[in-house]
Amino acid sequence: MKYLGRRSMGRPPMASFRPHLKILFAVCMCLVLLCNVTEPAQAKLVIDLNNPNLAKMPIAIPDFASDQPGSALGKELTNILRNDLYMTGLFHIVDSVPAGVSTREEQTDFRLLTESGIQALVKGRVHIQGDQLTFEARLYDVGMRKMETGKRFTGRLADRRSIVHTFADRVMQTLTGVPGCFSTRIAFVGAAQNREIYAMDFDGHNLAQLTQTGTIILSPEWAPDDRSIIFTAYLKGNPDLWSLDLFSRNQRLVSGRQGLNASARYSPQGDRIALSLSVKGIPQIFLITPQGDIINRLTNGRGNDISPTWSPDGSAIAYVSDRAGAPQIYVTPANGGPSTRLTFETKYNTDPDWSPRGDLLAFTSRIEGRFQICTIRTDGSDFRILTREGSNQEPAWSPDGRLIAFSSNRQGKKRVYVMDARGEIQIPVTSVAGKAPAWSSHRIR
User: Fold this and answer.
1) Mind listing the pLDDT tens digit for each residue in 151-208?
2) Can you tell me whether residue 30 is helix, strand or coil?
3) Residue 73: what are its φ and ψ, rounded to 5°?
4) The CATH number of the domain where 285 resides is what?
5) Which residues contact 394 (CB under 8 A, 6 or more apart)?
């Protein structure tokens, strides 16, 4: 190895750095110029549902353009979409859209929208020919100045609400990764003299009566494929479990054992039904096949065990038991095993429903003499009260886990309400008295 000498090991002469300093200076000047002529990078528009400090996304939805001058259809469809997104509690629907926003894509002033704090924009056009509707809508990321999703729909004018709901589902899919629930249906039991089963769109429209039994009906539940509904009814004088085919409207007896056959809930896979049977005396939780054959018995305690609800993966079941002296919520493995008590906050907790997202249970709790809808995490933490007005019961999650349907008497008669998962927005959706809501997974025609 050649010896370099002391000078080579010390500080080199300044002259040797000068060419390098010139190059470095030129690079820095280029970077400064680039920073001055380009805009800051924008992150992709997304709603993080797991963020506890999530702020509402400002979104502008100007009235959809119509080919028919003076037609109110564009405004009607716009209001449907606005209402869908508003009810999730995830959006701030901007009332005043800047003048630079036009229904024509090439006239959109994204800079003006950004300065107004708007993050998302939806534009749409409608065209009617006879009884046929063509609806075209696009969702834009204002910060990125690009279209995120768009779709042209054609269908009957009578189906216009369904068409807009479908686009709203697409918006939620784009922004959160999970489709919306706006195309689904809610079944419920009439709470006046007529105790039959009804079904409606999630926002209360397209109401239809499904049964004509002339008797008391309890606890409707959609099958996972949404082709049928199971329910408890006194058609033969005993609280038996029945199934209603939604296409033929035929009714089939599933479990007619002496005593209680109630609060039945399908497993996520649809191969088992959990319900409360009193064949051995006091009500206990059993599993049966969809044909009614007993698979096994899950609980065998001293209390009354009712109202089972499945975890989204089908591995566990939450239910209500008064074994400790008053109704509380317990969790047990779906294949059998010891139960664990989940609720301790109040002395009376019932009506559990497991969120499709798997993280929460919604339930009814008696607080200061009135029933309220609450949520709790599956480890027993983060107990939250979502309702305060009137008496509120029987929560049911939407299939995307963003909304909760429940019954309330806050306006003088029991009606079905829908609220967002944080309880910030609560809206009555039934035009008739109703209770015991159950949410479908798919669109039912």
Assistant:
1) 999 999 999 999 999 999 999 999 999 999 999 999 999 998 779 999 999 999 999 9
2) helix
3) -65, -40
4) 2.120.10.30
5) 351, 364, 406, 407, 435, 436, 437
Range of the structural domain that residue 125 is part of = 57-176
CA distance 96 to 111: 16
How many CA atoms within 13 Å lie on the side-chain side of 280? 16
Q: Which of 223-232, 274-283, 395-404 has the lowest mean pLDDT?
A: 274-283
Residues facing residue 189 across a β-bridge: 197, 435
* CA pair distance 252, 230, nearest whole angstrom: 9
What total number of domains does the chain contain?
Answer: 2
Q: Alpha-carbon distance 378 to 368, whole Å?
A: 24
Choose among 128, 117, 74, 70: nearest CA to 95.
117
86-113 per-position pLDDT tens digit: 999 999 999 877 766 665 555 688 888 9
Give dist(CA 199, CA 219) in Å, integer.
13
pTM beyond cutoff 0.70 = yes
Provide CB contacts within 8 A for 444, sequence distance 6+. Answer: 185, 199, 226, 246
CATH number, domain of 135, equals: 3.40.50.10070
Encode burial over 227-253: b for 16+ CB neighbours within 10 A, e otherwise.
ebbbbbbebeeebbbbbbebeeeebee
- 434 in Cβ contact with 207 (< 8 Å): no
Is the per-residue pLDDT at 30 higher than 60? Answer: no
- Three-state secondary-structure class, residue 116: coil
pLDDT of residue 71: 77
Q: In the block, which residue shows the tokens 């279209």?
A: 147
22, amino acid identity: K
Q: Is 144 buried (19+), middle (13-18) or exposed (0-12) by CB count in 10 A?
A: middle
Predicted confidence (pLDDT) per residue in 237-253, tens digit: 999 999 999 999 999 99
Domain final residue, candidates 176, 202, 225:
176
Q: What is the CA radius of gyration of the chain?
A: 29
Map tokens 């065990």 to a residue: 305
Residue type, 111: R
3-state secondary structure of 321: strand
